[in-house]
Specification:
2 domains, about 30% helix, binds magnesium ion, OB fold (Dihydrolipoamide Acetyltransferase, E2P), 13 helices, binds 4-amino-1,4-dioxobutan-2-aminium adenosine-5'-monophosphate, BirA Bifunctional Protein, domain 2, 19 strands, single chain
């Protein structure tokens, strides 16, 4: 008997095949049992007709429970009744493993219950669609950089330095020293771009975020390109081309998943260059006009990002924030501004990219390190990059989970990563 994946069913019309799958739902009426099967690649219905199977098999089909694993042998029939276009006329059903009292039933469950059962919740149609879109986003990221002359350079996870401020560091014992889990691979990519011109790293980042918001995880994934001889404006060009590419790849390759998630696809189709670019000063003006009184000189939080994003139907790039709200490594631009950019997703999904041009002047950088109370000694290697042929360079970091949330239309990042780590969640 030919054993196949459900996804390949179209190649076997009117042939006998064997499927190995889980039962996710069932309906019965008299002489018929309709078994809804899923094997991870797709879903299909198997019809068990009393006249076609042995009494034992008909009995098994009657008793079989949700999420039991089974083997179904039968003939592939074309039908308009199902999304996949085929169903199976069963001749035999075998039990692989019985599932008892599966906790996630087709009724509604609250988010806490579902998060406690995340290892099982992943099997649902919606969660599987999110996993597939996440995969497509990551593939598009890799393709984009690989096709544009970048080299993947892995950054370490244990680091001696803070990159994004000392308040969100996870500290760990490293023999006789203290080490931190990496908040960002950026500083290492700055070293790498001086070696190979265009570098990117892709990996997990860790931040002890003490606020419970719908946009913050303590462990998230970030891709960080860094390019030598690049300024802030070229950096924005790169970010824009990159984000357009990812979104359009998802639109082209994940239509089915987006439909399952009931995402408004036309909003994503519209994500084409150019994206609006506004200065921090212009962003402040927008906020004040909308009745938000964030004083000039303060950083934006989630509420401000949402208000600004309402003005645009594409991602908006806010550039040149005041120096004092940004990390030590930014290049100083005119008027005590940082040569930085944040890209805010439309529809209130928040900041997806943070980046900018780096300070290449060793004395200005040293002054910044001291001003922010960081140790010059732990950054000696980083300062070396400014000693030996320093050049203008720039890059950015894109957060994968916020991008998944935006493209899938999810209100909370907890569903964007297979096993989320939040302030109050370490399990499963
Ligand atoms: O703006 P951030 O902090 O920038 C950096 O880390 C730079 N070193 C990147 C660089 O220039 N190479 O973080 C970049 C992005 C944010 O825009 C956001 O999408 C995501 O990372 N991010 C988080 N995502 C989920 N949970 C968190 N706690 C996040 N913190 C940042
Ligand atoms: Mg940021």
């Amino acid at each position: 008997m030919k054993k196949i994946w459900i996804n390949d069913i179209k190649n076997y019309e009117n042939q006998q095949v064997t499927l190995q799958a889980w039962l996710y739902n069932k309906r019965s009426s008299g002489k018929l049992h309709f078994l809804q099967l899923r094997d991870g690649t797709a879903e299909i219905q198997a019809i068990v007709f009393k006249g076609n199977v042995s009494p034992e098999v008909f009995e098994l089909a009657d008793k079989i429970t949700q999420e039991s694993s089974i083997e179904v042998t039968g003939t592939v029939k074309k039908t308009d009744r199902s999304k996949i276009g085929f169903e199976i006329d069963a001749a035999d059903v075998k039990l692989i493993c019985c599932s008892e009292d599966y906790p996630i039933t087709p009724k509604e469950h609250g988010p806490h219950f579902l998060m406690e059962h995340r290892h099982l919740w992943l099997r649902s149609l919606k969660q599987k669609s999110i996993l597939r879109i996440r995969h497509r986003i990551i593939k598009s990221i890799r393709d984009f950089f690989d096709n544009n002359g970048f080299t993947l350079v892995d950054a370490p996870i244990f680091t001696p330095n803070a990159c994004e401020g000392s308040t969100t560091l996870f500290e760990t014992d490293y023999f006789d020293q203290k080490a931190y889990l990496s908040q960002s691979g950026q500083l290492y990519m700055e070293a790498a771009c001086a070696a190979i011109g265009k570098a990117y790293c892709f990996g997990p980042a860790f931040r002890a975020e003490k606020s419970k918001t719908r946009r913050h995880l303590t462990e998230f994934w970030m891709v960080e390109p860094e390019v030598a001889f690049m300024d802030i404006f070229e950096d924005m060009d790169l970010a824009e081309e990159f984000v357009e590419y990812i979104v359009q790849q998802v639109v082209q390759n994940c239509r089915n998943e987006l439909e399952i998630l009931e995402r408004d696809i036309s909003k994503l189709e519209n994500i084409k260059r150019p994206f609006p670019r506004i200065s921090y000063d212009e962003a402040i003006e927008i906020l004040h006009k909308k009745g938000n009184n964030t004083p000039w000189g303060e950083d934006f939080g989630g509420d401000e990002e949402t208000l600004i994003s309402e003005e645009f139907d594409k991602p908006v790039m806010i550039h040149h924030y005041p120096m004092n709200v940004k990390a030590f490594y930014f290049k100083q631009a005119e008027g005590n501004k940082a040569a930085c950019v944040d890209m805010i997703a439309p529809e209130g999904y928040g900041e997806i990219i943070g980046g900018g041009q780096r300070e290449e002047d060793i004395n200005k950088l040293k002054a910044k390190i001291n001003e922010q109370g960081l140790s010059e000694q732990t950054f000696d290697w980083y300062l070396d990059l400014r000693k030996y042929g320093s050049v203008p360079h720039a890059g950015f970091g894109l957060g994968i989970e916020r991008t998944v949330a935006w493209l899938c239309g999810l209100s909370h990042v907890r569903e964007t990563i297979p096993f989320p780590r939040l302030m109050d969640r370490l399990k499963p």
